[in-house]
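Review this chain:
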Amino acid sequence: MLDGIDPEGMDTLNTVAGYGLGTAIVAAVIAATLGVYLWVGGKLGKFSGDKSAKGLNAMWLACLGVTFITSASSAIAWGVSTGGTDNLMPEAAQPQDITVNREAPVSTCDQGSGERVFEEEDDPPSHDQRVAIFEDVAAGAEPLGQSDITVADALESLRDTDATITNITWTPVGPGCDGTNFTTAAGTEISVTTQEDASAADQVMGPVGPRSGGYSFEVPAEDDD
């Protein structure tokens, strides 16, 4: 929880503590030296007994001061080095390594990655097989835009006329993002192109090529609810 926390000013505090320790030691050494000088001088009769006692007290106070300042500086340095991390926390409260295994979501393929251009295949499927593929791909689809032609209407027209499907484009639900996956992702469109040979009546007017047509549908997007 606290691991990695690096409050601003901690390095400065560590530096100040180091300078304070050094200064205090120098001052304590000077005080101790004066104390020893007064104490020894009193013993040798150079100074009065009162000054000798004060020198002894100064020496002891200097020693105690050095001990206190050293302990405080060491504590500050240790605190800065740990940075208040989880080493100070009870074991039960320290961060634990937690691994969450999640099932990979079903991915949606790239737009229009499902495509069949039947006339370009090595073994083009029959008309009925093409209609069956379209029926699988368009399951649950609705008319796109202003069109009112449903999937059922398109299937009925394909079965009752000479029109055949030349290609279908859709967006499968992965994995398997190709023309062999007949599932269609929600919120995507389906495009169907058809072709029908000219009728005899059309041929009376002169040479006429095949007529192209098609359908467009969309699979409704899934509700978040």
